[in-house]
Amino acid sequence: MTPQYDPEREKLHQMLHRTVDRRMLMRGTAAALGAGALARFLAACGGGEEETGGGGDSSGGDSGGAAQTPAASGSPAAGAGKPGGTLRVAIIGEPPAFDPTFTTATITQNTTAHVFETLWAQDNQFSPQPMLLESADIQEEGKVFVLNLRQGVKFHNGEEMKADDVIASLERYAKLSGRGKTLFARVEGLDKIDDYTVRLAFNAPTGIAPVFLQMPDAIIIPKSIADAAPDGEMGEFIGTGPFMLKERLPDRYISLVRFEDYAKRDEPPNNFAGGKTAYFDEIRFIPVSEQAVRSDGLITDEFDFAEDLSKDNFEALEAEPSVELQITLPYYFYGAHFNKSEESIMSNRDLRMALLTAIDMEPVARAGFGDERFWRLGPEISAPESAWYTDAGKQYYDLKDPDKAREMLQAAGYDGTPIRWIATKEYSYNYNMGLVMKDQMEKAGAVIDFQVMDWATLVSQRSQKDAWDIFITGHPSYNHPILQVFLPETWPGWWVNSRKDELMTAIIEETDPAKQLEYIAELQELWWSEACMIKVCEGATLRGYRTRLKGYNNPTDWNFFNAWFEE
Fold first, then answer.
1. What distance in Å separates the CA atoms of residue 5 and residue 9, rounded to the nearest whole number?
2. DSSP character for 407?
3. Element spanning 151, H or E
4. Can you tell me the distance from the alpha carbon of 358 to that of 448, in angstroms, rounded to the nearest whole number?
5. What domains does the chain contain, in order, with CATH numbers?
6. At what angle do helices 349-358 and 428-443 cross, to 10 degrees?
7. What is the pLDDT of residues 147-175, one digit of tens each?
C-alpha cells in the first residue's frame, strides 16, 4: 500500500540508545529530533544551499552488528579527557578486509572509521556535515557541486590532501562500491579547478549526493594508493583520520595509534562529524569470535570494550560493578538474502516465494535476539521512527504457512536439490536465526545444505555467483532506503530489475517528500513481491565497557575518538 503523507512525519522520531545501569534495564529513551533530515536537506538544495548512513550492510554493510542511529547526547567538551593509555576492544572476528570501499562489512567500517574520513560526515540527526570539505557550493538546482576542500589536511604519510587525491578516490569509489556505481551513473564530470577545488557535475539534479558521499565507502585516500588499487583492496592503509594503522596481525589484533598531525575541525563533536580528539595512545582491536570469551574478558579486565554480548550473560555482566552495559534500540534489520543470479537455484522467484511463505518470524527473531526487548517485527526497510517508513508489501510478511509453502515448492518445480546456505558463528544472532529458518524450510520440504565458515571466508564465497544460494546478514534501518547496498548490484546475486532502477532514479531526483515516499513505498512493495530476501526483524545489540571508559556515546557504529580513560 502507498501511505498517505502526513506532514508530521517530516519529524524524524529517532530512537536514542538505551544505556543500562542496574536500575534502568527496562527504561528506554526516545527523542524527536526536528524536521526529517532528508526533507530538510533536499529543501535546502533546491534553494542553492548546501546527510547519513554501516553501512552497512553494513554497516549498508554486511554484518550483523552495527550501523547508524542517533548518537547519545553528552559529547565531551574540548579538553575533557586526558591523553594516554591503550584501549582494548573485543570485536566479533577478523575483518575480511581493511578497506571500506572494497567491502561493505560493518566490522571493517567500524574499525576503519578511526583511520579514514569522507568529504561529509554524519551528525547525530543523520545529516551530512562537512568533514574534509570547507564548504560545497550547489549550483544549477542540484546538478553541480563545487567542492571547496579544507587546506592543511594531512594524510598519515605526511602528504597534504589535494584535489587530485579526492578525484582519484571518488573514481575508485565509483568502480568498487555499489553505492558509488549508483551515484556515478549520473555523473557527467569530475574535474579539478585548482588544488583545493573540485567540480562534480551530474546529468540531472542530484541533491542527495552528500548522503552517498558521507558513507564509509566514500573515503578519501592518497591518489597514489587509489591508482594502485582500482579494482581490489588497497595495499596501503593511509587516511586522514585521528588514528593511523600501526600494525595488523590477522586473527590477533589491529593496532591503531594517534596521528599527531591530525587536522581537527573546530565544531563540537557530533557523532562522526565535528571535532575529533585522539585521547588514546593506541586502540587495539582484538578478534574474539566467542561471545562468552568476550563477556568473560570484559569482567576480568582483559578488554575495555566488547561488542555483541550474549543476552544470556546479562545478569552476570549486570552484577559486575566495573562494567557498564548498553542495549541499543533496534536500528538494523536482519534477514536471509537469496542469490538471484542465473547460476543459483534461487534465481527462481516462485521458489523464493515458497521459502518466504514457510517462515514464522517470531521464533526466528527470538532465536537471534532473545526476549522482546531486543527485537521487533515488521515488513519495513526503514524504521517506523524514520521519515521513510512504509508498511508496503506487508501481505507477503510473516505468512508462516509450511503446508502452503510445500505446495508452492512443488509448483515451482523444486526437485530436492540441496540449497546452499553459507553461515558463520561469528555473528551469533545471524547463525541462530539461520538454524531456525533452516528447520522451518525443511519442514516445508526444502533440503538445506547449511555450511558454516568464518566471516572472511563467507564474504569471499559470497562474491562468487555460483558458490552460494542463501546467506543472512543485517542492514541499517535508519538510513535513507536509497543507501541500502542490496539495491544496486553490489554483489553477485543482488537484485536486478528495470523498474527498481527507475524507482531509484526517481527517488534520487525527487525533492517533494510526499512524492518521494510514494516511490519508496512502490520500491518496497516490488522488493517483497519478488521475494528478494526474507526480512525477519529489527534487532538490538548488547555491548559492555569498563566504567573507566569515558566519552563513549555512540550506540550504533561504535567509535572511540573523543573517548578517554578516567584516572
1. 8
2. H
3. none
4. 13
5. 51-328+542-565 (3.40.190.10), 332-539 (3.10.105.10)
6. 100
7. 999 999 999 999 999 999 999 999 999 99
